Amino acid sequence: MLTLYQIRNNTEEIIKKLSVRNKDFSEPVYEAIKIDDERREIKGKSDLILAESNKLAKSIGQLFKEGKQAEANQAKEKAISLKEEVKKLARKLNETENKLLQVLSEIPNIPNELVPEGKSDTDNEEIRNGGVIPKLNKKIPHWELADKYDLIDFELGNKITGAGFPVYKGKGAKLQRALINFFLEEAEKAGFTEIMPPLVINEDSGFGTGQLPDKEGQMYQITEDKLFLIPTAEVPLTNIYRNVILKAEDFPIKLTAYSSCFRREAGSYGKDVRGLNRLHQFDKVEIVQIQHPDKSYKTLDEMVVYVESLVQKLELPYRIVRLCGGDLGFTSALTYDFEVYSAGQDKWLEVSSVSNFESFQANRLKLRFKETGEKQTKLAHTLNGSALALPRIVAALLENNYTENGIKIPGVLQKFTKFDFIN
RNA sequence: GGAGAGAUGGCAGAGUGGUCGAAUGCGGCGGUCUUGAAAACCGUUGUACCGAAAGGUACCGGGGGUUCGAAUCCCUCUCUCUCCGCCA
User: Fold this and answer.
1) A114 within a domain of the structure (yes/no)
2) Which of A64-73, A97-106, A172-181, A363-372 is the most confident on average?
3) Is residue A128 domain-resident?
């Protein structure tokens, strides 16, 4: 959520920057300012009356003590009529505040100036790439390889739960565990503190990182207890700092967590959902940073370099793209997507998304900090990225490393898998 | 799941209808003293909103109510603790 301070002080500039998202947001922006004007007026009036009735209430006590019954009763009547007025205003103020919140939550984050214009993912800008696209004699998609070597059983998942909940078996399961351990160990080396968070969150947490109110359809719900299964560890990790006031010297805060992630993926269909390409439950190691506003973009670049080091160590061909305005997530100011080439399907698969949210999440979270020696609070910047999501990495590893003799395990993983070949 | 107790500032903890945004202690910050530190002493120390400012308003777990007036009384929700039951 943008702050009113941002909107009121740079109105024209913000509308112009938002237009990079391929949509005109002038209406909600002006609407927000209009409602805020109303809000201020009502608040001013209401405070004035409250001040008067507070004074009156104090005097009534005094008058009773002095035995001035008649005067006291007169003051009482006045106080009652003031109270009715305040009640009306309070109701109006509440309505106005709710309306304001609603309009504000329709306005997405302001794209950074690096965000290219564009409508869809085809307009994303490739920043750099690396690795070598393998030349295979035979292109076999991972679901066939998974079946051939009995690594992943999709049918069994259907039986136990439903589509999108695969069962990993034997070396398939060990490969999962190896990747998780590899990613966590790398994160630790890079200075991230490992967290093992709850996999279930409440409404406040969902609101804090922006999943609620409008994206609840993407989460699995436990309606009886008003809880949600996490779509990503970003939610519990970032919410650790909900309603927190930090000191400037606390920055940067670097957290990492492995978690299962649950997504309903309503509306997905076709070959996109084949095999491991799109699942309802998958595993991911997430990295989160909370940083001083002056340093968040430097941090974003560092996170990109870090994620890049992971795909390089796994020897996967990759490319990094900067998302264009039309593809940029609602809450993000700048996002880099990582894609790895999966040779069996002959496709680029998105395996990570690294974003700077600036103060957009922090505003909802009420995540603030104070500069040393200053009293005033400011909003912190939040960033996060996948490092990495497992399924598509597994898909690429299986497909790219397939040989006549089996599937080769990358060197960095062998210490965790304890085997170097799947055959 | 059953019975009971509780939720107050960074922490501990007073306050049961008016002078309470809240005693006191600890902690934090600033200062005096000191070569430096400790101790002692003095001062200071929540957040948000309205206002150009002066100043005002709200907040004692959340929401609602009673009252001229609520941290204090009532309702409700959430959470914590103790005991019993069940249990990885």
Assistant:
1) no
2) A172-181
3) yes
Q: What crossing angle do the helices spanning A171-189 and A296-313 adopt, rounded to 10°?
A: 140
pLDDT digits (tens, 9 = 90+) for A133-163: 998 888 999 999 999 999 999 999 999 999 9
Total domains present in chain A: 2
Q: Which nucleotide is nearest to A58 (CA to C1')?
A: B18
Pairing of the two strands A377-379 and A253-262: unpaired
> Mean of the pLDDT values across residues A207-231?
87
Parent domain of A267: 121-422
Q: Which two tokens stand for residue A86?
A: 């305040």
Counting residues of chain A whose pLDDT is more than 90, the rounded percentage is: 78
- Beta carbon of A377 within 7 Å of strand B? yes
Q: Which of A77, A104, A131 is the last residue of a domain?
A: A104
Per-residue flag: A61 CB under 7 A of strand B: yes
pLDDT, chain A, mean: 92
**Burial class of residue A281 (count of CB atoms within 10 Å of its CB; 0-12, 13-18, 19+):** middle
| A151 CA from B77 C1′ (Å) | 48
Positions of strand B less than 7 angstroms from a protein CB: 18-19, 47-51, 55-58, 68-69
Q: What is the ipTM of this complex?
A: 0.87
For residue A85, with 0-12 CB atoms within 10 Å meaning exposed, 13-18 middle and 19 or more buried, which class applies? middle
Quick check: A80 CB within 7 A of strand B? yes
Across residues A76-91, what is the average pLDDT? 88
